[in-house]
Write the structure tokens for this entry.
Amino acid sequence: MFPQMHQKRVHNPPQIEPRVGFVPKKVASTEKYPGTAPYAPCPCNSGKKYKFCCKIVSR
């Protein structure tokens, strides 16, 4: 009834060739002062914590 059901299948994935000259792009930093701890005082001297002042959060 289903003759192909019990045969083993050979899976050959397609060969992917690397692109010549491909250089991945760097993700731009969205932070105003990169490397500052979130709960450290903000470097802009506003008196707030960095997380709540100058750090840009993408949502």
Q: What stands out?
A: Helices lie at 50-53. Residues 31-59 form one domain. The chain is about 5% helix and 0% strand.
